[in-house]
Specification:
about 375 residues, alpha+beta, seven-stranded mixed β-sheet, 7 helices, about 15% helix
């Protein structure tokens, strides 16, 4: 007689022989310190309960061929043990080890729910209402890029951004290595002309070593990064903003002209003078110091218009050429929305409306509101273009 299937909640330590109907809702490869690999997954049953699955490295090739994300299976046998992993992907007190007796058969089980995200609210992170040994799914709209550092010279690739939710809560997100490269690869060709929603799975939250505030980052294994994902939950989340979706700054990957409170940038070993950067003759990312002394009144003016979410929609954005001086050397720095709005307290569109009301609607006519950007000594994270 065939064994009756049990549910995930029926698993108990010591019982390695059973039958269960499940869906694989998350799947990833872990590269171990010795270079070997194994598969890990999260499976879900018909009642929505989940458990973390770990396979053995010696069985890697077998499970690579069998396990497929989003598919449903009948699974037989395995070893339920205490969920003692340092960073947990689900809250089940047990994890499941696939051992030599584990086997799976792919079957159609439509009654098991399809994958859905369990987004953890940004507000709870900021309140400290989270577990330090848990990994979470997070979502937010890209508000600012604080820092971009691509790998080289022994340094890891790293991107620091701010995510904002519907209520206006803002949290810092740090993307490392391949995740930083994914960000750069997405933002460079897309130019971020409209809002960008970021989804990161298996995100880890811990206090920022400088500010002490909660800070998110990707996990080293299993995290997935999505931009403007076409998923019902993401579409619904975007709609909840209404007309209050923050516009991201242009040229996000450049770290151009950004003032930062991050003390890392002010380390003397990281700061180069404007002259040293220009004399190198090479395109590079760099940190420098300078004082804004004037505007470069080029033919392009202080704003430009780009296409919005539809071809019929246009978006007005800041693009200022600002002369910056340090130690008798000068350079032209390009300021975008994220650099201007914190000082002007107005978007480019709003400032343009102010100028229209005064009868002057021309990008070459610079409003006095922009003068707040001058005579400021700042630390800049820039991309130098020869």
């Amino acid at each position: 007689m065939s064994r009756q299937p049990i549910l995930i909640k029926d698993l108990v330590k010591g019982n390695q022989v059973w039958k269960m109907l499940i869906r694989v809702i998350d799947l990833w490869v872990v590269i171990e310190k010795n270079g070997q690999q194994h598969m890990e997954a999260v499976i879900q049953d018909g009642q929505g309960d989940k458990i973390h699955v770990i396979t053995r490295s010696r069985d890697y090739q077998e499970w690579v061929e069998v396990l497929k994300e989003h598919e449903t299976y009948t699974i037989y046998n395995g070893e339920p043990v205490e969920n003692d992993v340092p960073l947990k992907v689900c809250c089940n007190p047990l994890k499941l080890i696939f051992n030599g007796g584990t086997t799976m058969t792919k079957v159609a089980i439509p009654e098991i729910p399809a994958h859905s995200f369990s987004f953890f609210p940004i507000e709870k992170f900021l309140r400290g209402d989270y577990k330090h040994d848990m990994l979470y799914d997070v979502i937010g709209v890209l508000q600012d890029v604080l820092k971009t550092q691509m790998g080289g010279g022994g340094r890891k690739s790293c991107v620091n951004v701010n995510l904002r939710d519907v209520q206006g809560n803002v949290i810092e997100l740090v993307l490392w290595d391949d995740y930083a490269k994914q960000f750069v690869n997405y933002t460079t060709p897309n130019n971020l002309s409209g809002p960008t929603l970021i989804v990161l799975t298996h995100a880890w939250c811990k206090p920022n070593t400088v500010s002490g505030l909660p800070c998110l980052s990707n996990a080293w294994n299993g995290s997935r990064l999505y931009f403007n994902l076409d998923h019902p939950q993401v579409v619904k989340y975007k709609a909840s903003f209404g007309d209050n979706m923050p516009a991201p700054s242009q040229s996000m990957t450049c770290d151009s002209s950004g003032q930062s409170s991050n003390n890392f940038w002010t380390k003397l070993s990281e700061v180069k003078s404007i002259s040293a950067i220009s004399e190198s003759g090479k395109d590079c990312y760099a940190t420098t110091i300078g004082t804004t002394i004037g505007f470069n009144a080029s033919k392009f003016g202080w704003y430009f218009e780009s296409t919005g979410n539809t071809e019929a929609e246009t978006v007005t954005k800041f693009k200022l050429e600002v002369e910056v001086e340090y130690d008798n050397h000068k350079g032209i720095f390009v300021f975008w929305d994220k650099d201007c709005i914190p000082y002007t307290k107005l978007s480019a569109k709003e400032l343009r409306e102010v100028m229209k009301a005064a009868g002057e609607d021309n990008p070459k006519i610079w409003p006095t509101h922009l003068d707040v950007l001058l005579n400021r000594t700042l630390v800049f994270r820039i991309k130098y273009q020869s």
